[in-house]
Amino acid sequence: MSDVSGLLGLCCRSGQIVLGAEMALMEIRSGRAGLALIDEGASEGTRKKILDACAYRGLPVHMLPAGEISRACGKDGRMAAAVKKGELCRRIAEMLS
């Protein structure tokens, strides 16, 4: 998981990731997201919102261990994220598959 954490950190520094459930939902709905990530510690409501939006748009979703998104990006309490389309998104998706 450390390779994925490293790429997530790189995404944060380069502005290729949107953190937080509501911001991730906006990114998913706009069509700019290529991948959605959900923390295992996320509430059922947050999970359902992200999963439904991704299912409707055919977007891949991956569950990450509790606290992984927050740790990788250095921001506490982030339970969901959307990675913007591009090379970093493709590489994260490959690692998680």
Q: How would you describe what is shown here?
A:
This protein has helices spanning 2-14, 21-30, 44-57, 68-73, 87-96; strands spanning 17-19, 33-39, 61-64, 80-84. By secondary structure, it is an alpha+beta fold. A 4-stranded mixed sheet has the order 1-4-2-3, sandwiched between helices. The longest helix has 14 residues, at 44-57. It is globular.
* Mean pLDDT across every amino acid position: 93
pLDDT < 50 runs, ≥5 residues: none
Structural class category: alpha+beta
The fourth-level CATH homologous superfamily is Ribosomal protein L30/S12
DSSP, total strands: 4
Helix content estimate: 40-55%
Per CATH, the class reads Alpha Beta
The succession of helices and strands, N to C, reads: HEHEHEHEH
Under CATH, the topology can be stated as: 60s Ribosomal Protein L30, Chain: A
Output the number of helix runs: 5
Oligomer: single chain
